């Protein structure tokens, strides 16, 4: 902390504050901190024998050995009174339990050991007499216990244990960096210990940069460089030399933490105020974890506190609901602790359920009144509070009341009576397990389980007495915490039980947990079960054994079929938090499921045949194979998918005469996957069966004797049934039959006696011929699916009430006249019924018909006569010849599909009167010659396709399609003109006129079409270019291939938003430099431009360039060295110059140089992924070390990016994400949640961006870049070259700055000779690689250098040698099987060999191509800088690095003085690295020198994040000239505008002083933001302001 002093904590006299009156030397009276306040006990005592009511206090050390029954870490044994005779607290939720709270962080001292709130680290001579004294004074003034050291150290002394102890026993360390801080070894040792405590114990560190720049501390420059140069003289290998390494690391870590900079916060008094305010805020956050012992509950406590609604004058009731052990008491207690002082009176009434049984509600109410009114002898025995005196006194008091564990409305109403009894502003908090109790509360808070990382932390505190498991226990601990599903009680109990046990004992215990619960957890959860009614208990056990995950409708039918009122029971179970429904599907918490199964096991612990329900394989196997079933058994459920086969006797079910549910599931159900066999048949099934669910049933029929009176559902898909039974059976309760894909089924059962059947599924039953006609129509049948029953000839007429009838791919010949009786029919699906002819008589009486699908019914020749209420009519590939004029009466029609109706020649004019039509598809109607005038506004039509028709013109009234989004006119060869009214389609997004070769008359220009995104005009005339001039402000995709364009249209360079441009097969000779103005362009195709001679530039964002068969092309100038564009990482780049024999030597050299730069930039993507470290995350105050470790141990274990993002969210939050959202929207939601909860600073957000970017890289595939061009030799920078198709290299492992240099991958180059090549299947280079390691087995894999794609029927002729080169990052990743082992594999690799082949797009070798030479070049990385063996990679100067990376223009030889300072201090490489890592958007940085000014242009583009977050994609380092986010511009109407400011700059070669007061990021087009020209003049600048606009 300084060069002169260690002592146990001692105060010194604060000096006069420069901006305040001096204070006395004596320590001022302290205002208790938020933590100190929470330590006070409330005297809520009573002389009674029944329980008194308390404020939950902070526990004392005497309780440290209490049992570990407390959940949520709320580890206090709360005394119920200050008097010795008081009773202990009673709590339903062991959240208010007995154990001492475990520590918050790894081995952070317990609360009694944490002596100090703040530890001050500083160098005495620099700051003791001024800044530190005032800071210390203000901290003490706020009641913050602060440690400082004021005694001198003797030279050569070691840091005393007292100082180390003080650091460990402090919650927060404030480190004051001054100019000479690093000159003190004691300060550096102190800092190393502080950062160790931060990493291992989660101590909060706040750096203060006092008269020194953060960059100087971070990179040890200036005075810090001088100081460390002295320290570096320590003998190599000595203890001091090792310490110096740790000091440097600690220094960099500390300087990377967001802190306080004296150069930006002035005057000093303001800086002190900000530090003190920050300390107080952090202490408040810590208090929840320390005082209340609540792990992961801060956000829930804050949410409940927000619902209290301070300032609102009504009486407000807050309900907190959750299952036992979920933390209700803990949350309510924490809120009570933090809020009670704001009320006149307060009372915490604990464990109302139990205490009301013991002492009665009258006694509880009396005690409540005593506490509120401050009395000791209130005794009211009447149901109502009759005393007007008491009522009046209550009305004058604002009270805070917590009623804990209320189990009935009666209890609540008796204790509270009426809320009008209390003064306005009073608050009542009620905790309960039954939602029905608090249904009238103003707010209801349903407790969620802990997040994954919080669950692991709480579990680890109990199991290991630290906040993260030891490495050898990590996997087991994660399994245990997952088992608890976020329930604090379970985590506490499990952790305490497993504490100090061996790994073997852990594994045994976890196996046992799968079948049984810990007794303590079971007893708590059983309370909820015992509180259910008999019907609710039966229903709950049915649900957990048989129906978890099923739809509510399915469950309701079966529970009702069992004689239970399903709706009432299910509602009751939901209210009591025993079950939930997500998307209308049942969900039961795993602990509740295990509790229920344990209840079933208790019915007969040793004999499963006497249990009511059998759900495990062992139970079912024992009972069924040994024929020991009894009348006790009510149900069997078994998923046989992954189990062994079962051989059952024909009498297996005879003893189970009371069985209601039989469920055999098979996830891999098919004809060959039958695992339950009945070799002797089946003679008996219980007559009480409600559900017969038997997938892959193995025999031809059910038992002859089976009585099915009680059956509700038959689910027997993919069975070997030929028929269910002979004859007719009584099926009075049957509702559903599913026999789908039963290939041998010949007939359905006679359902004459099944009046309630609602659903029949028999799709895919290829042998099904007939459907028996019941004696009476099935009045309840709503759904019938016979699709794929190809032998079925007759239309089924078994019910008139069917709503959905599926008959696709059947052999039905006609729709009978009786169809008019299907009055309820809404969907009739008869697609691909090839034999169907007669449909014209489909009755108009079907008024509820909404969808008719006759697609592919090629024998249908006339338009069906159907109800005008239909919404979807699909008639594609029919033989319909005309559409009747009555089509206008289809007033609800939204979709009309008539694709490939070859006989259709015209449309009635009335079709334009369809006011509800959304999509009209007439594509492929080749005899359709005209489209009628649109006389009325078709304001709902969005999609119109006339593709492949022979219409000559569009109606002039096209403007009446006011909502049209897509107009498809492709291959309308007869189309001559487009009407002017086309330009009035303001909603048009896509226009396709490709193949309209006779189109000559265009309207004006498309600039008015502001919504247009895509224009496809391939094979049109060149006049189309004039039509496109001016462009649309939103145009993204433009196809002008084969349009006969003879001169490159300059107007195209004005289409600044275009991302894909196809100009292939045109006749222009030059692509001008102005094409670089298309900054958003990513894909450009110039293939087959036979007249093309020069390509004078490409846009900076281009990732795909095809220039194939442009035989006159001579000049190519790819972008110059001053431009560097960094792309998102999921790109596959390809730059192809194939069959361009006229390319000049300059052009090929330019392409090769550009390829080299792109390979290195692409490799940089991978390098930054490899260099991602957990330390980056641990620099954030909001992320605890255990959360960092949890992230790093789980982030690679997901199946894809979508799962990883959800996993990251559940690590920190217990809220549910919308799982259907795509990754970009999930990223936005995650960032929003983090920012809302943690209020991250800029650095925190940036580090989190890097985490998301890292995941994006890992899961979204690896980047690659590919080049192809004519050439006769491989570039010289490939050091390992070989003739032929094979090459190998021995790997050397380099060192850079005493750090290992990681092999990131291989650049690959192949020289191919083409001879008589004439093919249309495209081309690629496949390379097979073999990696040999020192200690790891040999790996064999393959990769590709991509060439070009083929076009069927358009062969490409190529001659001569061509060079392929590129970089594919996936090859080494695949060898290492992902990112986790990448560094290990790359360091162990000693030899790599490659065999190259030329293949087509089908993977076949191309005989006309020969590999002449091949080469590989290992690429290594150290942090951000790329190293090749032939480069002088030890060079450290900024000048050399900038020059190597070709990042500037014209300045590579003159980086001196002020200009070098500017570039260095802007931390340009920090910006670039973030841009690479930030795959969510693009970042480009241009630096150039002109007219005495340095211009730095930075552009970042959002990739789908919410507006207002884009600017966070940008980071320019920290100072001088540090760009810092201040706040969102409050006055700006644009939510994307942020204000930033630059810190002062002193010095420089020219003595200039610059301050940029404000700089706005302004939006360009959609999501683009740009900081325009930042002007920094290099000579004779005066003091003043510079504004960036």
UniProtKB/TrEMBL annotation:
Transmembrane segments: none annotated. This is ADP-ribosyl cyclase/cyclic ADP-ribose hydrolase. SMART domains: TIR (SM00255). It comes from the Eukaryota. Its EC number is 3.2.2.6. Coiled coil: none annotated. It is an enzyme of class 3 (hydrolase). Residues 1-32 are annotated as: Disordered.
């Amino acid at each position: 902390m300084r060069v002169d002093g260690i002592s146990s904590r001692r105060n010194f006299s604060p000096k006069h504050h420069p901006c305040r009156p001096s204070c006395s030397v004596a320590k001022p009276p302290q205002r208790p901190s938020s933590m100190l306040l929470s330590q006070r006990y409330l005297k809520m005592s009573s002389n009674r024998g029944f329980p008194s009511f308390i404020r939950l206090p902070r526990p004392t050390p005497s309780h440290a050995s209490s049992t570990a029954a407390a959940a949520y870490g709320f580890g206090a044994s709360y005394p119920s009174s200050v008097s010795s005779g008081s009773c202990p607290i009673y709590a339903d939720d062991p959240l208010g339990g007995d154990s001492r709270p475990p520590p918050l962080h790894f081995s952070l001292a317990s609360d009694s050991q944490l002596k100090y709130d703040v530890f001050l680290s500083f160098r005495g001579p620099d700051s003791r007499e001024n800044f530190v004294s005032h800071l210390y004074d203000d901290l003490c003034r706020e009641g913050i216990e602060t440690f400082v050291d004021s005694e001198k150290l003797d030279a050569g002394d070691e840091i005393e244990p007292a100082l180390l102890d003080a650091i460990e026993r402090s919650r927060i360390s404030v480190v004051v960096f001054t100019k000479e801080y690093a000159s003190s070894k004691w300060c550096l040792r102190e800092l190393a210990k502080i950062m160790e405590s931060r990493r291992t114990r989660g101590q909060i560190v706040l750096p203060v940069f006092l008269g020194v720049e953060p960059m100087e501390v971070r990179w040890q420059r200036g005075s810090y460089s001088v100081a460390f140069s002295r320290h570096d003289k320590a003998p190599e290998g000595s203890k001091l030399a090792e310490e110096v390494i740790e000091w440097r690391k600690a220094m960099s870590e500390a300087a990377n933490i967001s802190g306080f900079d004296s150069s930006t916060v002035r005057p000093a008094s303001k800086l002190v105020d900000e530090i003190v305010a920050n300390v107080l805020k952090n202490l408040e956050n810590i208090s929840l974890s320390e005082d209340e012992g609540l792990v992961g509950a801060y956000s829930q406590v804050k949410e409940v506190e927000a619902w209290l609604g301070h300032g609102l004058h009504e009486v407000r009731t807050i309900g907190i609901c959750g299952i036992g052990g979920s933390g209700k008491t803990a949350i309510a207690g924490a809120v009570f602790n933090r809020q009670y002082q704001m009320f006149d009176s307060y009372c915490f009434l604990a464990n109302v359920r139990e205490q009301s049984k013991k002492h009665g509600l009258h006694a509880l109410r009396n005690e409540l009144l005593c506490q509120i009114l401050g009395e000791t002898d209130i005794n009211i025995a009447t149901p109502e509070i009759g005393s007007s005196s008491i009522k009046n006194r209550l009305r004058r008091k604002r009270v805070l009341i917590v009623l804990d564990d209320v189990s009935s409305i009666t209890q609540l109403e008796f204790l509270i009576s009426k809320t009008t009894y209390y003064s306005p502003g009073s608050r009542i908090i009620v905790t309960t397990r039954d939602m029905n109790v608090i249904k009238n509360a103003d707010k209801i808070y349903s407790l969620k389980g802990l997040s994954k990382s919080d669950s692991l932390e709480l579990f680890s505190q109990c199991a290991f007495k630290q906040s993260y498991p030891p490495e050898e226990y990590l996997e087991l601990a994660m399994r245990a915490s997952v088992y608890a599903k976020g329930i604090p009680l379970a985590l506490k109990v499990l952790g305490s039980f497993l504490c100090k046990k061996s790994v073997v004992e852990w594994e045994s215990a976890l196996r046992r947990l799968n079948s049984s619960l810990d007794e303590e957890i079971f007893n708590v959860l059983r309370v909820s079960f015992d509180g259910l009614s008999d019907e609710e208990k039966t229903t709950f056990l049915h649900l957990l054994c048989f129906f978890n995950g099923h739809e509510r409708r399915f469950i309701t039918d079966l529970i009702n079929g069992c004689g239970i009122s399903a709706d009432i029971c299910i509602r009751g179970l939901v209210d009591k938090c025993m079950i939930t429904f997500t998307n209308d599907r049942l969900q039961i918490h795993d602990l509740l499921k295990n509790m229920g199964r344990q209840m079933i096991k208790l019915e007969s612990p040793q004999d499963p045949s006497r249990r009511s329900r059998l759900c495990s394989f062992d139970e079912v196997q024992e009972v069924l194979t040994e024929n020991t079933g009894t009348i006790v058994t009510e149900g069997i459920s078994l998923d046989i998918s992954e189990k062994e086969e079962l051989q059952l006797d024909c009498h297996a079910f005879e003893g189970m005469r009371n069985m209601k549910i039989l469920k055999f599931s098979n996830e891999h159900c098919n004809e060959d996957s039958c695992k339950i066999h009945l070799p002797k048949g089946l003679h008996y099934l219980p007559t009480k069966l409600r559900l017969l669910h038997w997938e892959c049933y193995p025999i031809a029929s059910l038992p002859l004797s089976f009585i099915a009176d009680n059956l509700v559902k038959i689910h027997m898909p993919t069975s070997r049934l030929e028929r269910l039974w002979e004859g007719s059976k009584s099926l009075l309760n049957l509702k559903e039959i599913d026999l789908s894909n039963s290939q041998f089924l010949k007939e359905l059962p006679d359902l004459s006696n099944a009046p309630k059947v609602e659903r029949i599924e028999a799709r895919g039953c290829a042998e099904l011929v007939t459907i028996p006609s019941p004696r009476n129509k099935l009045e309840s049948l709503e759904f019938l699916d016979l699709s794929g029953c190809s032998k079925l000839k007759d239309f089924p007429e078994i019910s008139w009430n069917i709503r959905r009838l599926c008959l696709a791919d059947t052999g039905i010949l006609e729709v009978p006249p009786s169809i008019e009786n299907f009055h309820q029919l809404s969907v009739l699906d008869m697609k691909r019924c090839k034999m169907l002819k007669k449909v014209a008589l489909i009755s108009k009486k079907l008024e509820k018909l909404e969808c008719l699908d006759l697609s592919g019914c090629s024998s249908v020749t006339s338009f069906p006569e159907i109800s005008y209420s239909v919404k979807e009519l699909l008639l594609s590939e029919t033989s319909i010849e005309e559409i009747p004029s009555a089509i206008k009466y289809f007033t609800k029609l939204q979709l009309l599909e008539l694709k490939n109706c070859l006989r259709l020649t015209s449309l009635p004019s009335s079709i334009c009167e369809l006011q509800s039509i959304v999509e009209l598809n007439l594509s492929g109607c080749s005899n359709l010659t005209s489209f009628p005038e649109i006389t009325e506004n078709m304001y709902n039509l969005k999609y119109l396709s006339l593709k492949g028709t022979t219409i000559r013109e569009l109606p002039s009234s096209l403007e009446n399609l006011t909502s049209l989004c897509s107009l498809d006119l492709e291959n309308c060869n007869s189309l001559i003109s487009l009407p002017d009214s086309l330009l009035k389609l303001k909603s048009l997004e896509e226009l396709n006129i490709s193949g309209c070769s006779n189109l000559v008359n265009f309207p004006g220009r498309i600039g008015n079409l502001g919504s247009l995104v895509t224009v496809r005009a391939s094979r049109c005339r060149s006049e189309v270019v004039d039509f496109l001039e001016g462009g649309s402000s939103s145009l993204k995709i433009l196809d002008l291939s084969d349009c006969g364009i003879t001169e490159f249209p300059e107007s195209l360079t004005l289409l600044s938003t275009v991302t894909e441009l196809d100009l292939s097969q045109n006749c222009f000779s030059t692509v001008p430099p102005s094409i670089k103005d298309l900054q958003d362009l990513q894909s450009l195709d110039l293939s087959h431009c036979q007249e093309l001679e020069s390509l004078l530039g490409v846009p900076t964002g281009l990732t795909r360039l095809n220039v194939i068969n442009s035989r006159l092309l001579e000049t190519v100038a790819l972008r110059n060295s001053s431009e560097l564009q960094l792309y998102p990482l999921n790109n596959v780049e390809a730059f192809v110059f194939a069959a361009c024999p006229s390319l000049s030597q300059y052009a090929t050299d330019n392409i090769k140089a550009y390829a080299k730069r792109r390979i290195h930039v692409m490799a940089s993507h991978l390098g930054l992924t490899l260099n991602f470290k957990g330390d980056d995350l641990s620099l954030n105050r909001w992320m605890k070390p255990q959360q960092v470790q949890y992230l790093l141990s789980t982030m690679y274990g997901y199946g894809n990016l979508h799962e990883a993002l959800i996993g990251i969210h559940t690590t920190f939050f217990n809220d549910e994400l919308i799982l259907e959202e795509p990754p970009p929207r999930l990223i936005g939601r995650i960032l929003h949640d983090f920012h809302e909860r943690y209020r991250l600073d800029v650095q925190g957000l940036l580090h989190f961006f890097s985490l998301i970017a890292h995941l994006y890289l890992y899961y979204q595939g690896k980047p690659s870049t590919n080049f192809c061009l004519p050439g006769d030799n491989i570039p010289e920078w490939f050091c390992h070259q070989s003739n032929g198709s094979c090459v190998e290299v021995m790997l050397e492992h380099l060192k850079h700055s005493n750090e290992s240099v990681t092999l990131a991958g291989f650049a690959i180059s192949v020289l191919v000779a083409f001879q008589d090549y004439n093919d249309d299947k495209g081309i690629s280079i496949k390379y097979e690689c073999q990696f040999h390691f020192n200690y790891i087995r040999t790996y064999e894999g393959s990769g590709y250098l991509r060439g070009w794609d083929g076009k069927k029927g358009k062969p490409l002729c190529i001659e001569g040698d061509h060079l392929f080169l590129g970089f594919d990052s996936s090859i080494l990743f695949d060898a290492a099987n992902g990112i986790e082992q990448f560094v290990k594999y790359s360091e162990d690799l000693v030899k790599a060999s490659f065999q190259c082949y030329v293949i087509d797009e089908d993977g076949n070798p191309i005989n006309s191509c020969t590999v002449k030479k091949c080469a590989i070049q290992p690429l290594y990385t150290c942090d951000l800088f790329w190293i090749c063996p032939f480069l002088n990679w030890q060079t450290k100067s900024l000048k050399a690095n900038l020059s190597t990376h070709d990042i500037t223009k014209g300045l590579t030889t003159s980086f001196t003085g002020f200009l070098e300072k500017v570039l260095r201090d802007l931390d340009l490489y920090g910006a670039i690295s973030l841009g690479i890592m930030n795959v969510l958007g693009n970042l480009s940085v241009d630096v150039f020198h002109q007219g005495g000014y340095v211009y730095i242009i930075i552009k970042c583009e959002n990739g789908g994040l919410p507006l207002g977050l884009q600017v966070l994609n940008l980071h320019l380092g920290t100072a001088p000239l540090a760009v810092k986010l201040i706040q969102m511009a409050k006055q700006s109407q644009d939510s994307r505008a942020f204000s930033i400011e630059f810190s002062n700059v002193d010095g420089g070669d020219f003595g200039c002083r610059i301050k940029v007061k404000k700089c706005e990021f302004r939006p360009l087009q959609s999501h683009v933001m740009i900081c325009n020209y930042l002007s920094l003049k290099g000579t004779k600048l005066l003091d003043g302001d510079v504004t960036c606009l």
